[in-house]
Write a structure and sequence with these properties.
3 helices
Length: 203
């Protein structure tokens, strides 16, 4: 008597391997799929280039169009310096120096925080902190745009909002400096970020 199990084992034949779904498509369809994938990759790279992280290092200085001085300002959490208030015959007060080496992602909104100085010496002795504010500006690359030769972020502190622009680097030709002048104090453009009250961060 034959062993039925062995007979069934000998009768088993391997099934022919079916081609993949891609191989079953026509050549034209395959090229269309490849083209679509390349377009998707190009679009992803463009989106990353336009809106992905783009960190750059800038110095920072500021103009203060308020009569009261700014005790300190911060850009994306990085501390800045004080900015003197304007005098009666001035357009704006200036800063107490230039902040060197602020790392700023020009593809992300710019968060600026500042705290006004004490209103009176009595407030200073009583440790009554001046009011503090925050403004969120559009990404610098979108507006006002970042020139290739930008070296310094310039902030304009108006009574109700903050605006930003850049000093640009020039070059020396025939022993003379040639290039764009530094950004001057000016009237507001009306853009930037609106000042919103926050809790004081200095005492």
């Amino acid at each position: 008597m034959k062993n039925d199990s062995m007979t069934r084992f000998r009768d088993i034949r391997p099934y022919p391997k079916r081609p993949s779904w891609l191989a079953r498509l026509s050549t034209r369809t395959q090229w269309i799929i490849v083209g679509l994938l390349m377009m998707l990759l190009a679009g992803a790279y463009w989106a990353w280039y336009e809106y992905g992280p783009d960190e750059r290092v800038f110095s920072t200085r500021a103009y203060n169009y308020n009569s009261r001085s700014i005790a300190q300002f911060r850009v994306n959490g990085q501390s800045g310096l004080n900015v003197f208030g304007k005098e009666k015959n001035e357009i704006a007060g200036g800063g107490g120096g230039i902040v060197v080496g602020s790392v700023i992602d020009v593809n992300r909104p710019l968060v600026v925080e500042w705290q006004m100085d004490y209103a009176t010496m009595a407030d200073a002795f009583a440790h009554r902190a001046g009011p503090a504010y925050r403004a969120v500006l559009p990404p610098l690359r979108q507006y006002p745009g970042v020139p290739d030769n930008a070296i310094r972020l310039v902030l304009h502190f108006y009574p109700d909002h903050v605006e930003a622009e850049f000093d640009q680097m020039g070059e020396v030709k025939n022993r003379q400096y040639v290039g764009p002048p530094i950004v001057p104090a000016r009237a507001p453009r009306g853009d930037g970020g609106k000042a919103q009250p926050i809790e004081p961060f200095m005492r």
